[in-house]
Specification:
The complex is a heterodimer of chains A (698) and B (245).
Chain A: E1 2-4, H1 8-27, H2 31-48, E2 51-56, E3 63-69, H3 79-89, H4 91-95, E4 98-104, E5 108-111, H5 126-136, E6 141-147, E7 164-170, E8 178-186, E9 189-191, E10 195-205, E11 210-217, E12 223-230, E13 234-243, E14 248-256, E15 269-277, E16 281-287, H6 292-302, E17 307-313, H7 336-342, E18 349-353, H8 364-375, E19 379-383, H9 398-402, E20 405-406, E21 413-414, E22 422-423, H10 436-444, E23 452-453, E24 456-457, E25 462-467, E26 470-478, E27 481-486, H11 492-496, H12 506-521, E28 530-533, E29 537-539, E30 544-550, E31 556-564, E32 570-573, E33 576-579, E34 582-587, E35 593-603, E36 607-617, H13 631-640, E37 646-647, H14 653-667, E38 669-673, H15 678-697
Parallel strand pairs in A: 3-4, 3-6, 6-7, 7-37, 9-15, 16-17, 16-18, 18-19, 19-27, 29-36
Antiparallel strand pairs in A: 1-2, 2-38, 4-5, 8-10, 10-13, 11-12, 11-14, 14-15, 20-24, 21-23, 22-25, 25-26, 26-27, 28-30, 30-34, 31-32, 31-35, 33-34, 35-36
Helix pairs in contact in A: 1-2, 2-15
Chain B: H1 2-19, E1 27-30, H2 41-52, E2 62-65, H3 71-75, E3 80-85, H4 93-104, E4 108-113, H5 121-133, E5 140-141, E6 169-173, E7 176-182, H6 206-226, H7 236-243
Parallel strand pairs in B: 1-2, 1-3, 3-4, 4-7
Antiparallel strand pairs in B: 5-6, 6-7
Classes of the chains: A alpha/beta (698), B alpha/beta (245).
Chain lengths: 698, 245
């Protein structure tokens, strides 16, 4: 094919030379000189017009690359084995060329022999693996990419080169049926007895039946949730709502009941870890005799919104005289069975104040239940009185085992105005005021107590207050539970200390101290007023659904929520009230990075704030969750490389290579520029010299 | 002189012993005026309290001078105090503040107008004092379902020696009555002579009214030791069922 490269200057020059030729033709008389002159200028015009011609390029050294997907999904349905079989069958054809075999999953690596091709448990990164290879290639090359198309991202490769042809070879399954849990979204923090939500994305291909989905506790094998679903083809969103009662770490398993002939059962279950916290403490308070201590402590607990209090006080002893029939009194039967057997483990803390079990025919087995309750994580407080400790008959009972004090015959209940002479200021339970010095002053200046039980602490007891080496208050851990002892039932006097003290707020001190003790024994260090519930990890363009749960807040003046983006800009979130104390909001993240979801609540007296962080990343697939070969992705690859997807069964390597060569020849030519040919210049000079010779010498 | 000193020493020890107790103490406020219209009535009250309930009692009452500078120290040692009278009550202003601190820190005051008059000087002065003590709160009236009506006995009607008003009045703080005010002269129902006969008749209900009034006062004492315990949910079905009979 002839080609010309023209510019304006070329054209002008050509015109000038044409004029010169015409002029010469007219002026020169001798025929031989005329011919030579015309020939010369013809050469000049040829050179000026930049003539060239194209010839097809030959591929002398074609490079062949085979990239085999060795990710986890290739294990399924013998996909990788089929590729190996194909390569072995076509080995003679392959070895004719300069062939290299690479395996790839999260990256590429060289394979020397076909036998070395094995699948791994890694995920697939097709795009980055091909880019790695194509980037290195300089010469004309064909890359056969054997894959099922399941890639960790929908992104395509970046690099393509003219001389490199990438041919996606689609490894598909003739028969594919599978159900899998594709993804699960849930908050890793939950609250006791409050509905927890888990969103599961379940993939179904090839089935049209009812699918049972259940959630079980891995430790106890107890079924927490179970339901039947009619799954559509493709991805189904399923919401599970359930409440967990076990405080602490809950290891759960979400299971799709397997169906017959699924390609894999590995993706039919997912493990979930949910940390369940208490949002309220349940306290059971038994008092053997009405007292000011009971009056004040009960009042404190009753007014605490975080505490669910059930209390019983013995208003009348069996030996007391009834002056009215029971129908005229407000007394109710003491529910011994309900308290000690049926409901005990539903509480977090049990308080005995001056309470003896002996008067009410409570069997020792019931006390054993209390011991079990404590050892399994419950809290127990015993407050002194003539019906407590040894005097209450707890010697040689299971209660004695768990108390941090010895029960001895030396025990007495003394009516004496005392002040503790030894205070453990460094314990977390005695750290009431923020300032250490102020804290010590408070403790030292507390009003006198009016009585105490003469006790002796055990070695493992942590003594908070003591008087003449006898513990007034001490505590100890018992396996998972905590036990606290107060040898006095006159701490109400601390509260009334506000009457005579202008300097110290003893009422507040008393309240804070007992709350610390109660919370500590119940195993709850702090309870939040605002709880932001959502998952911690999301993908870009995946909606973040947020529940905000309020714990016991009254008299709300204002409540706002906001979002801090990865670039630190803030925007408000719109809140929608869905239940009493429960709000909902959502947003769509468009940037990857760390987001903060915040909430600010104002009441008449206080301001509460809370923030939760979430991470948003690029989209990705889970390797085994979605096992259906992805023809669409393979097609996109083919489009990117301007080739066509070929299925493994239909692949003829030789034919593809020959076609490539033909195409290459058609598309790739070499251009020979005549003016660059040095012989042309030589001919011009010779002819020019000839003209001079003829003109001069002939 | 020595005898006097000895007596004061023993008495102080005794008083401190009484204060150092978890037993119920009948603490009565003294002021210039007729502060003690029924001097021995506390003995009977304490006896009945002890034999009919699980409460342990201190047999001797404590008298606290409301005008004294030591009021704040003495009153802070008892959770419940009683103020009786039938004439004007004058309390130093600084001690009104002490009484306010007392009730807001957990104490309870029972006030009884024993004059049995609709417009008594006692009532007038008490209302003034309460206004000074709690300018932000008003006296409220009890109803049938109020906690004082069921803290031990089930009381359907508020009475006293007379049935002048069918309610008690109270000031509420932190969801509990901290000052309870009666104008029906409940305490008079307990007064006996040396032969053990009740001195005052109860009008118009007679002995039934007396019994009812005595139970009401016991309820008030039980309330001071148990708080609003009988308002807890667990009790309501039983109480409601009995009240409906």
């Amino acid at each position: 094919m002839i080609v010309v490269r023209l510019s304006l200057i070329n054209i002008l020059l050509v015109l000038i030379f044409v004029v010169i030729i015409i002029f010469s033709f007219i002026k020169i008389k001798r025929k031989d000189l005329k011919i030579i002159r015309i020939f010369l200028f013809f050469l000049v015009i040829l050179m000026t017009l930049n003539f060239g011609y194209k010839l097809p390029k030959r591929i002398d050294n074609l490079r062949l690359f085979l990239m085999v997907d060795t990710s986890g999904s290739m294990q399924v349905n013998n996909r990788i084995q089929r590729v190996k079989n194909f390569l072995e069958k076509n080995y003679t054809k392959i070895k004719k060329y300069n062939t290299k075999i690479y395996g790839f999953n999260e990256g590429k690596y060289e394979i020397k022999k076909i036998d070395e091709i094995v699948s791994t448990n890694k995920m697939t990164k097709i795009n980055s693996s091909i880019d790695e290879l194509v980037y290195q290639l300089e010469y004309p090359s064909i890359v056969f990419l054997f894959s099922d198309g399941i890639n960790f991202t929908e992104e395509l490769p970046f690099i393509k080169k003219d001389k490199v042809k990438v041919i996606p070879v689609y490894v598909y399954d003739k028969e594919f049926r599978d159900k899998s849990i594709f993804e699960v979204r849930y908050s890793k923090i939950g609250f006791k007895s409050i509905d927890h939500e888990v969103k599961a994305y379940v993939y179904n291909y090839g089935y049209n039946d009812i699918t049972k989905i259940k959630l079980i506790d891995i430790e106890t094998s107890k079924v927490i949730y179970q339901n039947n679903f009619n799954l559509n083809e493709g991805i189904n969103e399923i919401t599970l709502k359930f409440a967990l009662n076990k405080v602490g770490a809950n290891k759960l398993k979400l299971i799709i009941e397997p169906s017959k002939n699924e390609v894999s059962y590995e993706n039919n279950f997912v493990n979930l870890d949910i940390e369940v916290k208490k949002n309220k403490i349940r306290v059971l308070y038994l008092c053997g005799q009405p007292s000011a201590e009971y009056f004040n402590l009960r009042s404190l607990l009753k007014n605490d919104p975080y505490i669910d209090l059930v209390s019983f006080v013995i208003l009348r002893n069996p030996e007391s005289i009834a002056i009215v029939p029971d129908t005229e009194s407000a007394l109710i039967p003491f529910p011994v069975y309900d308290i000690f057997i049926k409901e005990l483990f539903n509480f977090d803390l049990l308080i005995f104040e001056n309470f003896t079990y002996r008067r009410f025919g409570i069997p020792l087995e019931y006390l054993e239940n209390i011991r079990k309750f404590v050892l399994s994580g419950g809290g127990f407080i015993m407050i002194g009185g003539e019906n407590s400790f040894f005097l209450g008959g707890y010697k040689f009972t299971p209660i004695e085992d768990i108390l941090p004090v010895y029960l001895t015959e030396k025990e007495k209940f003394l009516y004496e105005e005392i002040k503790p002479d030894n205070i453990n200021f460094n314990d977390k339970l005695t750290m009431i005021m923020d300032d250490k010095t102020e804290n010590e002053l408070y403790w030292k200046n507390l009003p006198y107590l009016s009585n105490y039980q003469l006790l002796y602490n055990k070695e493992d007891a942590i003594v908070l207050l003591s008087y003449k080496n006898n513990p007034i208050m001490c505590y100890a851990k018992r396996n998972k539970g905590r036990v606290f002892v107060s040898a006095t039932n006159s701490t109400w006097r601390w509260r009334l200390g506000n009457v005579f003290s202008e300097k110290y707020d003893f009422k507040s001190f008393y309240d804070k101290f007992w709350k610390k003790v109660i919370y500590y024994c119940a195993g709850v260090e702090d309870i939040k007023n605002i709880n932001i519930i959502c998952d911690e990890n999301y993908k870009i363009s995946e909606e973040v659904n947020i529940s905000i749960l309020l714990s016991n807040i009254d008299n709300i003046v204002s409540f706002e929520s906001y979002l801090t983006l990865p670039d630190f800009s803030k925007k408000p979130l719109k809140l929608r009230k869905i239940q009493k104390d429960r709000y909902y909001t959502s947003f769509l993240p468009t940037l990857p990075g760390r987001y903060a979801i915040g909430a600010i609540l104002k009441t008449e007296k206080y301001i509460f704030k809370e923030e939760k962080f979430i991470n948003v990343t690029e989209a990705n697939y889970k390797e085994m969750a979605y096992l259906k070969p992805n023809a669409e992705y393979m097609k996109k690859l083919a489009d990117f490389y301007s080739t066509q997807v070929i299925s493994l069964d239909n692949l003829d390597i030789s034919e593809v290579i020959e076609n490539f060569k033909k195409e290459f020849s058609q598309n790739y030519t070499e251009t020979f520029w005549i003016y660059r040919n040095p012989f042309l210049g030589l001919i011009f000079i010779l002819v020019f010299l000839l003209e001079i010779y003829i003109a001069r010498f002939k | 002189m020595i005898k006097r000193i000895y007596f004061i020493f023993v008495f102080s020890l005794y008083i401190s012993y009484i204060f150092a107790s978890d037993k119920f103490i009948f603490a009565q406020l003294k002021y210039p005026g007729n502060w003690d219209p029924y001097p021995d009535v506390y003995k009977d009250i304490l006896d009945i309290l002890e034999i009919t309930t699980s409460v342990k009692v201190e047999k001797e009452r404590i008298i606290i001078d409301i005008s004294s500078d030591k009021l704040k120290y003495e009153i802070s040692k008892v959770p419940f105090v009683i103020l009786l009278g039938n004439n004007e009550v004058i309390i130093p202003f600084k001690n009104i503040k002490v009484l306010r601190d007392y009730v807001t820190s957990g104490g309870t005051i029972f006030i009884e107008d024993t004059s049995e008059l609709y417009n008594s000087k006692f009532d007038e002065s008490i209302r003034k004092i309460l206004k000074q003590m709690f300018p932000e709160y008003k006296l409220k009236k009890t109803d049938r379902d109020y906690v004082l009506m069921k803290s031990f006995y089930l009381i359907r009607k508020v009475t006293g020696r007379i049935a002048m008003y069918n309610y008690l009045e109270y000031i509420e703080y932190e969801n509990r009555p901290v000052i309870i005010y009666s104008r029906n002269n409940i305490i008079a129902c307990w007064a006996r002579d040396r032969l053990g006969n009740y001195i005052y008749s109860c009008i118009p209900g007679g002995e039934q009214q007396r019994f009812n009034s005595q139970k009401l006062f016991l309820n008030i004492i039980m309330y001071s030791l148990c708080g609003t315990y009988k308002m807890d949910k667990v009790h309501q079905p039983y109480i409601q069922e009995r009240l409906n009979r």
